[in-house]
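Structure (tokenized):
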């Protein structure tokens, strides 16, 4: 975690997002991020997982839409710094290919409610659920 804090201090983000001032992993449930403009966001593991910037084999493409279902109870196992621009989050469903840039965290936090509402609408439209499928 010390390396992650050092990386945060060296960060220069693009003009689009303010500079990240704090990153706090509250495993397994959520991540807290704060930015120089005073914006602070609490982003759940489920929200981060379904908004992963990576292409993943567990994503269903239905009518050209990216649909990830059954992740309500996913947890975060760890976060690893990647350069000076972000972190790789490792989830307990073994997804670990997404690199979340500081700008992406700002985008997610700034659009959290719209993104979550659209996610839930997409699941309903395709008859899917946030809950994992039951094992037989």
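Design, position by position:
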């Amino acid at each position: 975690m010390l390396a992650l804090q050092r990386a945060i201090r060296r960060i220069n983000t693009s003009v689009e997002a303010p500079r990240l001032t704090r990153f706090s992993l509250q495993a397994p449930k959520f991540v807290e991020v704060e930015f120089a403009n005073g914006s602070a966001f609490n982003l759940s593991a489920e929200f981060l997982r379904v908004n992963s910037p990576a292409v993943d084999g567990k994503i269903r493409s239905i009518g050209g839409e990216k649909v990830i279902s059954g992740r309500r109870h996913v947890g975060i196992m760890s976060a690893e710094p990647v350069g000076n621009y972000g972190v790789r989050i490792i989830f307990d469903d073994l997804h670990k290919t997404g690199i979340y840039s500081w700008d992406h965290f700002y985008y997610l936090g700034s659009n959290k409610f719209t993104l979550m509402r659209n996610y839930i609408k997409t699941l309903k439209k395709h008859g899917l659920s946030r809950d994992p499928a039951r094992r037989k």
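Reviewer-requested clarification: Residues 117 and 123 are 10 Å apart (CA to CA). The chain has four helices and eight strands.
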